[in-house]
Amino acid sequence: MAAICPWRMTTAASTPTQQSSSPTLQEIMDEELALRLQDEEWIQLAELDDSEVLDLDDSEDEFEDKEPVPVSEGHDGYDDYDESYDLGDDACSDDFGAGPGFNSLRESMRRQAKHEGHRGTFLAKSHIDLGRNGSGAQENMFDELTQAVLRKLMNKEIVTAVKARVHTGREANVFHGLGLEKATGQERELTLKIFKIFKGDFTRATECDPTGRRYGMEYVRKNIRRHLKAQTEREYKYLSRASAALATGTITETESVGRCARVPKPFILREHMLVTEFVGADGHLAPSLGDARLSGAQLRSAYTDLLRAVRRLYQRARLIHGQLTAASILYHNGQCWIMDLGHAVEVGPESHAKMLTRSLDN
After folding, report:
1. Alpha-carbon distance 79 to 211, whole Å?
2. pLDDT tens, 116-126?
3. What are the residue boundaries of the Protein kinase domain, all occurrences included (predicted)?
């Protein structure tokens, strides 16, 4: 080869000088080993005889202990053989189909086919029935996250309908809804307090970090959702503590005289949504203490009830309502209802006398 093609030796010799990097010793050894194994495989395949590869007698001896398949009269056995290898759309059978491994593989394929068939159903958004007889709130009033939360609550029948918006605040919107009580199965009125995600002061407060650098919108939205969820959990916790503190049970004899103001009973919270007891009747929210028309006796009774409630919240629940005003108090069925417990603060070593005095003055 060197005499016939002398240029090959010169090319091979000049290659290392032309290339910037030569192959390593390990790469050369791996390539030689791969070529040697490939040559040995081809030699072994060439030495095999066709009779040894397709020896049907040996394959029959391996199954001689098994009972033959019964053949009905009029059949020579070849019809069943052809049917077992029918490659139709729904038929793919062979002798190895009885093994547990093949059954597991077939089950996995069946589940995958089922998932592919229902993929459109999984991705499609189901319609939320927010009202009855066309009188409820519309679905486009809520963002995607709120719709997902409402869909989960309606699937569990905690909320059966969302009727209308009854109050609009700076931080949240309040809706009137209906739900089923699990203990009795009866329908009850609910209050759905949904904190705003893309509106309010939260967006402006979290647009920049302490250094003044602006955040991305995706980070701002995640931070807002995290903040609103923490605020919802805090209000749920304070409502639970206040509801237990303002219960009918008394501690001293002086507290048993007269009634006490109440707070809405919390039922459940999901993300930025809080479901509580509805304070009102027939879908109409109760008027605030400033808008209600009360007589002198009713005003005196409301004043004593609020003083008793403030004391119980301070002594039992260890809470102080930070923004207790006439607008945050509802009057329903001759009784005061304290709202917006999310602004409450816990009694601690810090200075809270000013907040308590301000609440009493208001």
Report:
1. 83
2. 555 444 433 44
3. 191-362
What is the Cβ-side half-sphere exposure of residue 324, based on CA atoms within 13 angstroms?
Answer: 26
Residue 165 and residue 113: Cα distance in Å, rounded?
Answer: 44
Structure confidence at residue 35 (pLDDT): 83
- DSSP letter for 317, please: I
Residue 258 backbone class (left: φ over 0; alpha: ψ -120 to 50; beta: rest): left
Residues 266/240, Cβ–Cβ less than 8 Å = yes
Q: What is the CATH number of the domain that holds 347?
A: 3.30.200.20
Helix (H, G, I), strand (E, B) or coil at 279: coil
Instruction: Establish if 105 belongs to a structural domain.
Output: no
Number of domains in the chain: 1
Q: How far apart are CA 55 and CA 347, in angstroms?
A: 91
Neighbours of 67 (CB within 10 A): 6
- The set of residues, in sequence order, having a beta carbon less than 8 Å from that of 37 and lying 6+ positions away, is none
Residue 287 scores a pLDDT above 90: yes
**In a domain? residue 245:** yes
Domain assignment of residue 310, yes or no: yes
Inter-CA distances, 128 with 125, 182, 267, 270, 276, Å:
9, 21, 21, 17, 21
Q: How far is Cα 5 from Cα 260, in angstroms, rounded to an integer?
A: 110
| DSSP secondary structure of 160-222 | -EEEEEEEE-SSEEEEEEEEE-TTT--EEEEEEEEE-SSSSHHHHHTSB-TTSPBPPHHHHHH
Residue 313: which domain range? 139-361
Tokens of 142: 């809520």
Contact 268, 316 (CB under 8 A): no
- pLDDT at position 114: 64
